[in-house]
Amino acid sequence: MREPLFVKQNSAKWSRYEQLPTDDPDELADRFIQITDDLAYAKTFYPKSKTTTYLNGLAAGLHQSIYKNKTEKSNRFLTFWKYELPLLFKTYQKQLLYAFIFFIIFCAIGAVSARYDENFVRLIMGNEYVDMTNANIAKGDPFGVYKSRDEALMFLAIAGNNIYVSLVTFVSGIIFSVGSVYFLFRNGIMLGSFQYYFFSKGLGVKSILVIWIHGTLEISSIMIAGAAGLILGNSFLFPKTYTRLASLKRGAKDGMKVAIGIAPILVVAAFFEGFVTRHTEMPVWLSVTILSASFLFIVWYVIIYPNKIYKTLNHNASKN
């Protein structure tokens, strides 16, 4: 591997380790192993380069940190969502893109299938749900299902289910990434057929204004959970310069951080579904404001903000 490519593949990780110190012994040990692996590779192929010198200094710093007794910083919890998780999004942006592409394709398949097979929606959503929705449409309240349960109980049930689904989607990635793709397939097919069903009833725009109040955050989180599963599976399939076991451990840790990191987003989505979506007659401007804000937040936090941090860290690293 040529040195520029080696640096490009690993610079985000090196910058993260340098700019975001940790007192967690397990994390320090993991970082030290990864950096020494990279250092060994650099010494073998680029023994006199600045990259090797840089990695040697970084490894020395980590070595010293391991043997120092430090108290954990009080802001560790905040640092995770402010820096660590966004930088993971940057590091694994390809997996995020792949999960997004897979999901969109599966949604399209679901919509096309529902269009050409009138029984497809019943197959995917179930007869009971379709019959109930048809009855609600006849009564002039097509989204009455969101009003059928107590707000608090609905919120708790949905939050628990959303987190469970995201974790299952992540863990399934251990099956060579195929497991996570399967869950993206299931959810994509369901969403595509579900959305087409309302468009076929002349309720397409209304369904977007109502359902996507919570769906924007919920669906985005499912795609991110799918990406976490790809991180896990791909770490085993494509270990790069690491041993397969070391790569798998790294992928499992990073994937779990991503899967756990989206839990607050899923909780907010459940809050919207339990307490807000039920107000189906809210003004259009309010609905558009909520779903637009949710969409902009996802784009900012998953794409724009991570790139901004990455550029800042790289700039600081180049100065050093």
From TrEMBL:
The chain crosses the membrane at residues 96-116, 163-184, 196-213, 219-238, 258-276, 282-303. Coiled coil: none annotated. The keyword Nuclease does not apply. InterPro entries: SpoIIM-like (IPR002798). The keyword Transmembrane applies. Pfam families: SpoIIM. Keywords: Membrane, Transmembrane, Transmembrane helix. This is Stage II sporulation protein M.
